[in-house]
Amino acid sequence: MEDSEVSKQKQILVTIDKSHLVTIGEKLYTEKMSFLRELVNNAYDADATEVRVDIAPDIISVVDNGSGMDENGLGQYFTIGSSFKKGHDRSPVFGRQRIGEFGIGKFAVLSSCKKFIVETQREDFKAQLIFDKEVWSRHQDWHVNIDILPKNSAKGNGTVITLQNVDSQFQLTKVHRYLAERTPINTPNFAVFLNGEKVTDDIITGRQLPFQHITPYGIMNGQIIISSANHRSEKIGIAVLVKGVLVKYETFGLENSRKWGVTRITGKINADFLPITSSRDDFLRDTPEFIIFNELIKKEITKALHILRQEGDVKANIQASKVLKDALFKIGKAMKNFKNAFPGAQVPMGEIALSEFSKTGDGYEISKAEFLDFQTNLDPEIIKHLAENKEKKKIKTRPSAI
Known about the structure:
Layout: H1 18-27, H2 34-45, E1 50-55, E2 59-64, H3 71-77, H4 84-87, E3 115-122, E4 125-132, H5 133-138, E5 146-148, E6 158-164, H6 172-182, E7 191-194, E8 197-198, E9 206-215, E10 218-227, E11 238-242, E12 245-250, E13 265-271, H7 288-337, E14 346-349, E15 352-355, E16 358-364, E17 370-373, H8 380-397
């Protein structure tokens, strides 16, 4: 009889090295300014009505008047990968759909500094903590120390995040544009200020084509914009937002298109149901949500390109008509000056062309022209009209009285 196989079971702990937390902050986010998006959006989730971002050469502060944090809130704040916001997806005061999902955004500050300070006040609780990467790395465990402070009755609830010894330089114009795109500045009861100036949207002028689609996963709405011909944008593509915050500019293949006017296609779309990456700078593209979204937007772009093609055809016809008008004018002038050279000649007479692109009549409708013998068989009304035009030209060329 064979010996029965004896098995033993043991346990091992699943752990994460401290260095990986630093890696999350330093490497996960593709843009240096990502921490500004995360901190401002955290304030939005906390029902702040105002967030003030102040940037100096070596120090940055983000101040909000949101709900602030008590001791439990601070513990939640430093819980990596916390699912709190997923379980509480609406803010208590304004009922905002919370933007945060993954609980790791606050460590994005480590991409620009090694030390940041959190000071927060909620009701009767006020505290401050200093997160120093070098000091924290030497701890035996994962704790951070907090200092309980006396309540400041002159100030209400809110949180201040201060980055010290910032090792990155930020251009204010780029930060302004980034905050305008990556934070929900158009939400009621919410405003963001950068060094005292309110952050607002860039306005793109052009023809707007609004749309809305109801998908099995949620509503997507927005507008495709056919920008003016002289508009030049630094960003190519259409802005795609989730929960009012830009994730990225998506080109939908426009960058490879050779169709006329394709560079004028822009716009803004909001689709809260789209799944995004943990760094919040791209979509999970192999999901059914993104696939149906992509198909619907391409149809909207096709409609915009059709309008552009029609616009181009009309403009081309008007231009051709203007060229023909100038040529006929020169021919007519030559025939008038050299009558003997054109015996029995015929000239076309047509109606002035008007269109949605030209209300002044820059050309003639060629299809309605009739050929008449020069200086013969002309309708008396036409002769009268020509005489009036001739008189008008004389009046225009007279020198004005001084």
